[in-house]
Amino acid sequence: MFIVLGLGNPGREYASTRHNIGFMTVDLLCEKYGRTDYKSAHRSLLCELRDGAQRVVLAKPMTFMNLSGFAAAELMNWYKAEHNELIVIYDDIDLPVGAIRIREKGSSGSHNGMKSIIYQLGFDDFIRIRVGIGKASGELTSHVLGTPPKEERELLAKAMHDAADACRLIIGGELKRAQELYNKKGKTLNKEKAAEAASEAVSDD
What we know:
The protein is an alpha/beta fold. It is built from six helices and seven strands. It is globular and about 45 Å long.
């Protein structure tokens, strides 16, 4: 089985913010499976389904970001999932806007939701899909809880679709394939962004 945990904050005021990338990606994934229904359980909104022989639980914690670990722990305990059956999708300020990184383990970095999850679970060897939202130009809280401008939204929309597709590959047993496809896609995107920035700099001179 797999538990796919998308991180975010509940409430309409947070729905389109950078910090809710995980929620939005899980919603996309749910739609890709032809589902739109959630139920409330284990401090989360859940959509339970099957992908071939795999049982899949799509989850959005309702604990608020900094307490995501409580929902993660309840879900892992209830479903008796193994470490490698957890996939966490979240925003990352340490990646350029629209870049994706898929890893099998690692630290929490600066992400408070991930800090809570690792602390409550007591391990960090689970799959994570990070979607880049870029560095804050000003105050960090305003950045992550802000709604991105149009040009960023276009990059993030593509990244979230890619993250959802990567997730389906992982559920299908193709983790390495997902990494090959989408980690590289992030690097290509970075090069394109760098080229655009360089072109703009030349134009400004």
